[in-house]
Amino acid sequence: MLVAVVGATFAYFTATTKTDGEGASASITTSNLGGTNFNFNSAASHYELLNYPGGLGIYGATAELKKAESVSDTNDYEATFDLKITYTNKTNTDLDWELYVVDDEVTLDSGEFAATTTCELKSAPGEAGKTKYWYADTTDAETDDQRCDAEAIKNKVTSDLHGEMIAHGQFPNVLTNSGEGTIDKNTEQGNLLTDATNNLGNRKLYTKSAEGKASKKTYYLVVKYPNKGDQSTDAGAKISVNLAVDGTPQAVLESQAE
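Now predict its structure.
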């Protein structure tokens, strides 16, 4: 479970907020599929700046398929699995999300996220001696209507690691569906791309890596908290997201060694 808590004590962007310490507890799926072992770890890495409007969170998860070490097997296998995102958004603000996949073996850690992002905390005097706080990119003007766009992180994942976005959408606020729900391969809501379908289903891994085939994939879920003015009603509201395997992965024989 990947959790952030948003809390505000004054109007507008003023806040006394924190991440509550549950930031990246493990959600691990391990399955023995014939002569293979499938592992999915949703606590690979994370980085959160969700204490104030305009911020973002990045969460990494790894999926890996290996031959079972205890089995003498010359065959190669293909595993198919589905993903789902379970979310809680108790704020009054719809949250934006994007999901990326990388076939490379490289996994970014929290320190690399911190070094890559251009997102930073901003502040300015407010009314009645109060101070307004929000997140925006370092190059943004010092105005309180800005937000972090996560472009630096997205460029790192797509350009440096050759990743691609497979789905994106919104986590509705507490006024819609009680601010809780699941997005899976059958969900039409949550997919804002006009030129693609929901790609949370039919993900594949292979025991033998080759061009177009990977034995390990890393998924990066980017969550963005829009800056929409006075969001003091979000005070103390819970935001949580969990990327996990939906159902049981399936493995089939891909090829037989001659």
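The first helix runs from residue 110 to 116.
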